[in-house]
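Dear colleagues,

For the upcoming journal club I promised to circulate an example of a predicted protein-ligand complex. I picked one with iron/sulfur cluster because it came up in last month's discussion. The inputs are reproduced below in full, followed by the predicted structure.
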Amino acid sequence: MVFYANSNIHPADEYAQRLATLRTWAEGEGLEVAEGVYDAEAWEAVVGRIGDAAEAKFGVIAGEEGDLEPVGDDASRPSSSEATSPDEGGAGTVSAEECADKGASPTAARAAREARCRACYRLRFEETARYAREHGFAAVGTTLSVSPHQYTRIIREELERACEREGVKARFADYRPYYDEATRRSREGGMYRQNYCGCRFSDAEAAAERDQRRAARRAARKAELAAHADERAAAEAERARNRAEKRAYAEAQARKRAILKALREQQ
Ligand code: SF4
């Protein structure tokens, strides 16, 4: 049974599109899907409030995402950094300049984003664990842990907390080593793939992170061009020399032909 508990997703169209994608996939897999209550207002009252306070203090907290180390019993699996696809970026930090501008440390910005995400996990796991208890399920797991962009340790803590409250088992697994495979299979299956976690904050953060990556790529290209500027100048000078030599040779040949012609005409 897949339980879809995502009051975090903004806007409602996005919520519906992700749910429709899930339903299509689940049907093919023979899995049942139950939908939670989409209560964006409740999410805003708890999580949105925390996010707004953090945003007022730090602005858009871009680049602060995910746990780097494997979480759980299977610590021998590859780390999340290995599971992160290059074009989606890995964990990073808010730049020192950005934090200095706002009088904050990267650690404080990260903590603020973590607090928001913890509240978000809590709300959704509590709903899920309650549903599980009310419908006679023995255990709850989560697919959230497939993403290297999430706080895996906090996901585990919140899942266990919610399950304990409702008296069901928490079946946590760190699925990050399967992120690449999940990405590949969803692409191959032509599934809709979101480019942000779900809430309005993450939409802005993901856009800022894409901008950061674009800027980094531009800077790298510029540095690469600068690094090879001398080589390019030397090659261009060489080409100019060759062109001048060819021109001088052609002119000398033309002069020679003109002299020979004049001599022939005198004879
Ligand atoms: S980034 Fe994701 S987990 Fe964090 S608050 Fe937004 S929707 Fe929830």
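Two points we might discuss: The first helix runs from residue 12 to 29. The pocket of iron/sulfur cluster is lined by residues 8, 47, 116-117, 120, 197-199, 201-202 (CB under 6 Å).

See you all on Thursday,
B. R.
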